[in-house]
């Protein structure tokens, strides 16, 4: 079971395997591989499988309220898109979430209110505009 926080349902579709520390990249790649294998996910309310290697580091933002608010915004937007209410404790299959519709909504901004104050937003904009061609999560 993959523990995943709300806004990482957005971030996962733009991860290209770099841009973070080596350890973080390695762990992130492992989570993406598990998603590609369609391992079940459970929504958590704080640090998740992607955060695992950095959540206790000095300066980590994993526990900050603004990041938890980002989770809430992402879950609200994805719930509205899919018609399925996603909250902490919800269980979902990666292949049911990371669809062409999800990517289209990411690209047109429909589900990206959570990204408003994120330092990576321009990078994610470019990755989406390029059709997610370089990302590691399988495109379905
Ligand atoms: S802009 Fe930030 S929060 Fe949004 S998908 Fe990219 S990395 Fe994640």
TrEMBL record:
InterPro entries assigned: DUF1284 (IPR009702)
Domain of life of the source: Bacteria
Protein name in the entry: DUF1284 domain-containing protein
Originating organism: Oceaniradius stylonematis
């Amino acid at each position: 079971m993959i523990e995943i926080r709300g806004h990482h349902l957005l971030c996962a579709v733009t991860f290209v395997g770099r841009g973070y520390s080596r350890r973080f990249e390695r762990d992130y790649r492992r989570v993406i591989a598990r998603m590609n294998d369609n391992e079940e996910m459970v929504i958590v309310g704080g640090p998740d499988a992607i955060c695992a290697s950095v959540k206790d580091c000095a300066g980590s933002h994993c526990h900050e309220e603004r990041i938890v608010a980002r989770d809430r915004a992402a879950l609200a937007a994805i719930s509205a898109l899919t018609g399925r209410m996603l909250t902490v404790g919800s269980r979902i299959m990666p292949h049911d979430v990371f669809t062409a519709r999800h990517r289209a909504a990411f690209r047109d901004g429909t589900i990206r209110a959570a990204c408003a104050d994120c330092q990576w937003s321009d990078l994610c904009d470019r990755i989406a505009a390029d059709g997610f061609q370089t990302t590691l999560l399988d495109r379905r």
